[in-house]
Amino acid sequence: MTPPVPPGSPLVLLEEVSLSLASAAGPVEILCGISLAIAPGEAVALIGPSGSGKSSLMMVLAGLERPSAGRVVLAGQDLAALDENGLARLRRHQVGIVFQSFHLLPTMTALENVAIPRELAGERDATRTAAEALERLGLGHRLGHYPAQLSGGEQQRVAIARALVAGPALVLADEPTGNLDGATGRVVIDCLFEERARLGSALLLITHDQALAGRCARRLFLEDGRLVAEESTEGRRIAAGQRLS
Q: What mean pLDDT value characterizes the chain?
C-alpha cells in the first residue's frame, strides 16, 4: 500500500508544466508554468473558478493528457518516458480517479463495477476484494444491484470503491460531491477521506466547496492556468513559488 518512492521524496512532482491546446483561433494556453509537489499521504485541495485549468491539471498529472512543456513525475516515474501502455499500467497500480459523474457501467452490478479493473489487472480474488471494499463503504447489502437501482450517493460510493480498491498511492477526485445534495455529499466525502487515510494514499481534491477544501492539509489556488497562492491548514496564505514554514 505504501508509495514506491524514497523517504522524503515527493509522490508527485510537476516542474514548469504548461499545456496548450489547438483551436480555430490558434493555440489556447490552458496551464502555464505549474510547479508543485505532493508528499506521500498528503491531502491537497485544488481551488479555482470554472475554466481555470483544474481538471486539465488533473488529467496531466494522471498521464491522460501530455503536457506541452515541463516535467511530470509520479511515483518515481517520469511520465514523458512512458508510452501509452506504460501510462495505463502506472494508473492501474498507482492512481485512483473519482469524477463528479459516477461513470459506472450500467449493465454491471455494483460488485462487478468494482471487480472488473482488478480482473483486468489479473487479480485472482478480484470479486472478494471488491466485495470487501463495498462492505467498508456500507454497501454490502447492494452488491447485486445495478447503477439504476442505486441512489446518487450509493453510485458515488461504488465509484470510490472502484477507484481505491487497488490501494493506489494517489487518489484524484474531481468535484466528487458536485452531483449530490449536501447531506449525501457529506456521507460520500467521509467515505473518501476514511478510505484514503486507511490506505495512506495522497489525495488531490478539486472542489469549489471551501468547507470541503478545509479538510485538506494544503490548499492550492489556480487562476487562468497559473498557481497563484497556497494555504496551509493553519490558514496561512502565501504567493505561489514561496514556501510554507
A: 91
